[in-house]
Amino acid sequence: MLVVKVGGSEGVDLEAIATDAGTLTHGGQKLVIVHGGSHATNTLSEQLGHPARFITSPSGHTSRRTDRKTLEIFQMACRGVMNQSLVERLLRAGVNAIGLSGLDARLWEGKRKEAIRSVEAGRVVVVRDDYTGTVERVNASLLQMLLEAGYTPVISPPGISEQGEPINVDADRAAAATAAALHAHTLLLLSNVRGLLRAFPDESTLIRRVPRHEIEAAAEAAQGRMKKKVLGAGDALQAGVGRVIIGDARTATPISSALNGEGTVFE
Fold first, then answer.
1. Which of 171, 181, 183, 186 has the most CB atoms around its CB within 10 Å?
2. Domain total in the chain
3. What is the pLDDT of residues 60-98, one digit of tens each?
4. Residue 219 sits in which domain range?
5. What strands lie across the sheet with 159-161, from one edge to the other?
6. Against a cut of 0.85, is the pTM above it?
7. DSSP letter assigned to residue 197
């Protein structure tokens, strides 16, 4: 079992990912594909006159400010744009793909954060009207049923809160929870860089291997969205996934190349 998370950033080659997935599934590999939608959300937000805003926590983590309007735009971008675009390409490549969101059948369930601390103009403020949460439970039986019936699930945010509200969940960490729930041997996080870089954005500084006892230090050194990917790798390994790879989604064979050793391997 292989879980592949496709980044939502600009530069990701969806066509190449779909073609590569087709080759793997025709060879008998079972796949679950998870994706984000950050670039599509930013673009749609601008078009709808509600530009993206971001929150920086006191610890330095950056996340999307998700008020109710932003949540609706996020749903449109992830499910209506990114998910359907990826499913379309997968079907053309011969993959029996089925599009889902974490909202469907409580596929990704967790708690909505009651309050978020944000640093604004040097002060720490508390934000209470944010629809953000963390995946704590995965409906693995639904995914197993689809896999056994010959489908390849393609999952996008949002997730769902215990109270039945849509919540913006981090797709990297949701993919880690999904891989753990399915007892996957590998979690592959595809991005628009070669992997974890020692000196971002210099791609010649690729770190090829990170032992699990060094993941915390690697997360501290990572910049931007890469920090969430490294944290997701740690979550997955701790939950029993065999290995995690951060690979390059811009190559001709993104999935196969990563499985053959390109990128950063956490184990």
1. 171
2. 1
3. 778 899 999 999 999 999 999 999 999 999 999 999 999
4. 2-266
5. 133-138, 108-112, 159-161, 166-167
6. yes
7. B
